[in-house]
Description:
Blueprint: H1 2-22, H2 26-30, E1 35-38, E2 43-46, H3 65-68, E3 82-84, E4 92-94, E5 107-108, H4 124-127, H5 133-136, E6 142-145, E7 150-153, H6 172-175, E8 188-190, E9 198-200, E10 213-214, H7 230-233, H8 240-244, H9 248-253, E11 257-259, E12 262-264, E13 277-278, H10 286-296
Amino acid sequence: MIRNTFAIAAVFLHHAHARCDSATDCSSCTNDPSCFWWEEFAYCEKGCGMNGCGASKCASDIDNCWDCLGDGYSQPAAGQYAWSPSSGSNGECVGSCMEAPADASCYPGKNPDNGFNGYDSSICYEIVEPSTCADCLRDPNSYWWEDIGYCEKGCGMNGCGAYVCASDIDNCWDCLGGEGTPASGQYAWSPSSGENGECVASCMGAPADASCYPAKNFANGFQGYDPSICYDIAPPPESECQSIGSNCKKCLKRDCAWSVRECHDDCMSAPADASCYQGQNAKRDRDTICSDEEVAFA
């Protein structure tokens, strides 16, 4: 029985290696997550070898310079490809510079085959004009102006753009924050989007015929909205204490207030006529309080 098990395993491994070895292009190679593509040799390898790992993603499936020139074996491209700024409408990731327009700039990634003398993704800040917020904010020194789709290095005459994207903001208050805040007045709050409202890049991304509240910014003459409107149009964000929920000991350790199996900011915000225990005041009796509450509501 043991001998048969080893025989089956050996056959399985042989076929797995055969699948990788028989692939003649990147697409058929990387369809199997255990195979990696070496562009220079047009070779598909099972797992990683002496030179590390090949690419786990094809050049044609990479749409930005940063991922295309991502070096290191944790990156999908693994330094196998090149970025051609003159290809496509905004540059393209190509298998090699042989595929780029003649006499045009081309930037091959760093890999063992070129002695790591190529380029890594840091060059992208110099050769690419980011067209999306996500690409812009890869550079910690850049700011995004949503209304004109522009990535600016540092702050300009009109102040600073956003240094967080709308998709990364989960509440109305941060979404409508003005200059000096991460959003810098660049976005809009759509109460009808998502489950409880969403921060959207602009009201064009909100449902038609539904309310939408653009933030105040230079482009709209500061005629938009500030976070004060959020109290009327959005559920308030949870405080640190409220986010603890029903963890009694954690609530009291954080010097929050515990009442009726919920954590509150203080006893003033807890239900009236209910027992309430303030964190520091209840420090010595914490275990007893939490145990009694569990028994009472069991």
